[in-house]
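Re: the request from the purification team.
They wanted to know what the chain is likely to look like in 3D before they choose a buffer screen. I agreed to run a prediction and write the result into the notebook, where they can find it.
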Amino acid sequence: MIAGVTAKPFAIGPAAARLLPFAAFIGLMMAEPLLAGLLGDELDPRWLYGLRSGVAALLLLLFWRQYEELHVLRCRPAALLLAAPLAGLGVLIVWLTLDGGRFVLGGGGSGFVPLAADGSLLWPLAIARLLGSALVVPFIEELFWRSLVMRWLERSDFATLAPAAVGLRAVLLSSLAFGFEHSLWAAGIIAGLVYALLYRRSGCLWPAIVAHAVTNGSLGLWVLYAAAWQYW
């Protein structure tokens, strides 16, 4: 430390702090074919999901001080203990219902399949996928889509905007964009609307994160139980 200079914690702008974990996750996903080719036989490419989840989690920790809305729990207990879990399960039902035909972009796919050559489940891979989708993805997506994009569509200085002040246009546009981020676009739009309304009505981001985590965690357990890999 230089004399007379006080060290400050690492900080960037509020938009960048909410964008970078999400961008890293999506960017690494898009780079997976290239990374898999570079790795060759050195690493099972299915571990790349764990890599991008880990990178996103590290960025969340790095910028955690800047997520002011997550530091103080301003939500009513009912929003977290009742409304959020019920909303998350409701989205799960929608996800498992609107899962075919015109409601799927590109016809879907085989999904993430954590099986060995003999058909046995590779538990480390499965657990890494489950933890990433249930514990990391809800944070990066809610901070990006709801805290940043939804509020920014309402006002450019979004960080000072209360969730309750977000109008219908911003809710709809952000939910549409969120929906088309997913192959199950119709279910994704409904999920985006549910999480957005939770954020708007409760006034804090935690209920949306909890609901999202319940959806993704429950879906992951269903995938493992039913071997429904297409949902991963």
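For the purification team: Residues 76-231 form one domain.
Please add any questions underneath this entry.
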